[in-house]
C-alpha cells in the first residue's frame, strides 16, 4: 500500500474515533427524546418534570403487581414500568422501584399476614380468575397498587380504576391513563412538610363531623381540616386555603355572608353544597307522606350575584338509585326489597373536565336544577354534573310519598335531558355587598371592603347529600360508612373521588389536575367480527404459509433451470 494512501487511512481512522468520542460526550450532557405516539403517551407534564427534578432524596416505590396475572394486569405492569422509567429520566437514582408478587410465598400463613398488612395500609384487593395448566380455574387476590416511601413517610396508592359501568379492559386503560397523576399526587403529598388548612363551615345546620366524617378523613391526608363557626368575624376564614359549605338548613346571617364574600374577594376558594329544597327522609322511612318545601338558607342572592341560580324544584330521573321498601302486608313481619326511586338520580359526570373525567356515577338524593346567570365575561362557567336523558322537574311545594315507588314511571313523562346540578365558576367576581350599608356588620368594627375579587374559583352543587355519608348511631357510638357506598346494592359510587377532585382543583395552582386529561385510545378488536370470521382466518393461516412455500419453490426451480440451461 502506498505511503500516502496509508497515511490518509490513518487520518480518517483518527477523525472517526475523535468524532465518536465527541458525539458520545455531547450526548451524555445533552439528550433529547421524541414521542412518536399520537396520544403523547411517553410525554410527561411540566409539573411532573419539575417535581422529579426537585427531589432531594430517594423515593422508594413497592409495586404489588407481579406473578401469574391475566393479560390486562400484565399490560398494567408493563405500562407502569414504562412510566417509572420515564420518571427516572428526570429524577435519576432518586426513583427506585421494585415489583413484588404478594402471593409468592407457598406458606398460606405468610401470605395471609402480608395480605392483612397491605389492606391495613390502604391497598384494596381485587378478585380475579387464573387459568391453571390443567385447564381449571382458581380464584386469586391481586393488590394493584403501590406503597411509596420518602424521607421516612409512607403512602399507599391504589392504581386500579373500577367503574362497574365499563368493561375490564376499559377500566385498566383508564387506570393506565392516570398513572402519572396518581404517582405525582402521592409524591407531592409526601414532599409537603406543612399542610394547608381547610374549613368546614358550621353554625347554620350544616353536616356535622359524623355526616361528613368520611370525606373529612380523606381530606386530612392533604389538609389540616377544621370546623369553623364564622360568628360575623371578617377575619375568620383568612387562614384557610379552601372553605366547604355543606348543607346549611337555617338562614345564614348577613354578617356571616359578608365574611364569606370578602374571603372570596381576597382570592379564597369555596365549595358550596346547598339544597334549595328540603325533604324529611326520616318521615319517608316511617312510611309517611312528607312535604318538599323551600330550604331557608338565605344564600340564593349571594350565589346569584356570583353567577349561579338554584331553582326551587325537584328532579326525578329514570337513571336512579335503589331504596328499600317494605313489601309485606300490614300486620306481617317487615320484608324489605330494593326498588328504583326516581328522587335519587344517578348523575353522569362530564368527561370534559379534569374534575369529573372517568368517574363512576354519582349518587344523589332530592336534587334541584342549577342555572348559570349573568353575562359577565370575566367569569368562566362549566357544567360538571347533569342528569340522564330521561328526567323531569317538579315544582314545590310538593308531597312526596314512598308509595310512589310501587307505580311504574311512564318514560314519556321524562322528556328533559342533561339538567345541570353542579357548576364550576372561575374568574373575577363582584361582591354581593356592593352599595349596601356595612356599618353594623363585623360587630360594628371598621374593615377594608373589596368590591371585586382577585382571580379565583368556586363550585356550586345543588345537593348536600353528595358529600354526606351514612351514619349508624348506636349506644356504643356513631359508625361512619364510606362516602358513596350503597349498603343495599353493595356498590360504591364516585362521590368521594368527585369531592376530592373538586377540592384539589380549587386549590390547584401548579396544574396537577391537568394530569387527569390524558386520553389513551383503547384499540380493542371487534369480538363480533372475530366470532363471525374466525373459521375464515383459521383457514387462511393454515393454507397461506404452504402456498407461499410452494410458490417460492417453483420460482426458485425456474431460476435454476434458466441459469443452468444457458
Concise summary:
With 566 residues, this protein is of the alpha+beta class. Helices cover 31% and strands 25% of the residues.
Task: Please provide a written account of the structure.
With 566 residues, the chain is of the alpha+beta class. It has 3 domains: 1-32; 46-190, Glutaredoxin (3-Layer(aba) Sandwich); 197-506, Rossmann fold (3-Layer(aba) Sandwich), CATH 3.40.50. 31% of the residues lie in helices and 25% in strands. It is built from 13 helices and 27 strands. The strands form 8 sheets. Strands 7, 8, 9, 10, 15, 16, 17, 19, 22 and 23 form a 10-stranded mixed β-sheet that branches. Strands 2-1-5-6 form a 4-stranded mixed β-sheet. Helix 2 packs across helix 3 (71-91) and helix 3 (71-91) runs parallel beside helix 5. The longest helix has 32 residues, at 534-565. It is globular and about 110 Å long. The model has no long low-confidence stretch (mean pLDDT 85).
The helix/strand class is: alpha+beta
Q: Specify Rg, calculated over alpha carbons.
A: 31 Å
Q: Between the first and last Cα atoms, what is the distance in angstroms?
A: 40 Å
Number of helices: 13
- What's the count of strands? 27
What is the domain tally?
3
What proportion of the residues is helical, as a percent range? 25-40%
Query: Main sheet?
Result: 10 strands, mixed
Q: In the CATH classification, which architecture of the largest domain applies?
A: 3-Layer(aba) Sandwich
Judging from the principal axes of the Cα atoms, what is the shape? globular
Q: What CATH first level of the largest domain would be assigned?
A: Alpha Beta
Q: Mean pLDDT, nearest integer? A: 85
Low-confidence parts = none
Amino acid at each position: 500500500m502506498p505511503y500516502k494512501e496509508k497515511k490518509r487511512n490513518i487520518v480518517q481512522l483518527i477523525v472517526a474515533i475523535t468524532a465518536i468520542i465527541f458525539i458520545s460526550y455531547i450526548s451524555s450532557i445533552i439528550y433529547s427524546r421524541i414521542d412518536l405516539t399520537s396520544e403523547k403517551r411517553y410525554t410527561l407534564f411540566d409539573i411532573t418534570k419539575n417535581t422529579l427534578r426537585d427531589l432531594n432524596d430517594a423515593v422508594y416505590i413497592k409495586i404489588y403487581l407481579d406473578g401469574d396475572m391475566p393479560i390486562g394486569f400484565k399490560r398494567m405492569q408493563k405500562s407502569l414500568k414504562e412510566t417509572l422509567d420515564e420518571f427516572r429520566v428526570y429524577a435519576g437514582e432518586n426513583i427506585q422501584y421494585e415489583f413484588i408478587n404478594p402471593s409468592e410465598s407457598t406458606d398460606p400463613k405468610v401470605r395471609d399476614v402480608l395480605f392483612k398488612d397491605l389492606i391495613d395500609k390502604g391497598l384494596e384487593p381485587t378478585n380475579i380468575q387464573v387459568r391453571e395448566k390443567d385447564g381449571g380455574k382458581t380464584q386469586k387476590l391481586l393488590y394493584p397498587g403501590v406503597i411509596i416511601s420518602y424521607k421516612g413517610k409512607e403512602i399507599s396508592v391504589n392504581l386500579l380504576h373500577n367503574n362497574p359501568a365499563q368493561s375490564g379492559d376499559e377500566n385498566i386503560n383508564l387506570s393506565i391513563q392516570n398513572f402519572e397523576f396518581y404517582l405525582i399526587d402521592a409524591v407531592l403529598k409526601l414532599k409537603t412538610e406543612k399542610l394547608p388548612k381547610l374549613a368546614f363551615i358550621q353554625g347554620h345546620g350544616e353536616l356535622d363531623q359524623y355526616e361528613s366524617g368520611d370525606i373529612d378523613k380523606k381530606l386530612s391526608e392533604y389538609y389540616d381540616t377544621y370546623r369553623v363557626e364564622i360568628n360575623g368575624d371578617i377575619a375568620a376564614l383568612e387562614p384557610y386555603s379552601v372553605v366547604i359549605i355543606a348543607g346549611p338548613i337555617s338562614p345564614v346571617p348577613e354578617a356571616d355572608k359578608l365574611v364569606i364574600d370578602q374571603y372570596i374577594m381576597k382570592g379564597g376558594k369555596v365549595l358550596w353544597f346547598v339544597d334549595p329544597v328540603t325533604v324529611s327522609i326520616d318521615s319517608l322511612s316511617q312510611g309517611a307522606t312528607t312535604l318538599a318545601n323551600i330550604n331557608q338558607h338565605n344564600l340564593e342572592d349571594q350565589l346569584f350575584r356570583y353567577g349561579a341560580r338554584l331553582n326551587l324544584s325537584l328532579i326525578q330521573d329514570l337513571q336512579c338509585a335503589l331504596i328499600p321498601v317494605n313489601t309485606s302486608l300490614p300486620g306481617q313481619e317487615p320484608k324489605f326489597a330494593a326498588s328504583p326511586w326516581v328522587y335519587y338520580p344517578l348523575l353522569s359526570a362530564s368527561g370534559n373536565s379534569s374534575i369529573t373525567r372517568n368517574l363512576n356515577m354519582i349518587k344523589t338524593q332530592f336534587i334541584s336544577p342549577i342555572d348559570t346567570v349573568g353575562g359577565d365575561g370575566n367569569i368562566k362557567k362549566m357544567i360538571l354534573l347533569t342528569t340522564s336523558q330521561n328526567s323531569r322537574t317538579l315544582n314545590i311545594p310538593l308531597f312526596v310519598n314512598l308509595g310512589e315507588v310501587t307505580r311504574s314511571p311512564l318514560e314519556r313523562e321524562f322528556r328533559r335531558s342533561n339538567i345541570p346540578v353542579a357548576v364550576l365558576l372561575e374568574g373575577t367576581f363582584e361582591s354581593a355587598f356592593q352599595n349596601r350599608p356595612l356599618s353594623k356588620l363585623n360587630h360594628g368594627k371598621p374593615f377594608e371592603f373589596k368590591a371585586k375579587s382577585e382571580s379565583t374559583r368556586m363550585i356550586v352543587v345543588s345537593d348536600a347529600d353528595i358529600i354526606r355519608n351514612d351514619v349508624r348511631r348506636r349506644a356504643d357510638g356513631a359508625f361512619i360508612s364510606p362516602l358513596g357506598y350503597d349498603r343495599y346494592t353493595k356498590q360504591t359510587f364516585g362521590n368521594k373521588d368527585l369531592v376530592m377532585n373538586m377540592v384539589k382543583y380549587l386549590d390547584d395552582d401548579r396544574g396537577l389536575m391537568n394530569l387527569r386529561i390524558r386520553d389513551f385510545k383503547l384499540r380493542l378488536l371487534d369480538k363480533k367480527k372475530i366470532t363471525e370470521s374466525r373459521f375464515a382466518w383459521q383457514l387462511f393461516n393454515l393454507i397461506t404459509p404452504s402456498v407461499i412455500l410452494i410458490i417460492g419453490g417453483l420460482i426458485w426451480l425456474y431460476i435454476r433451470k434458466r441459469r443452468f440451461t444457458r
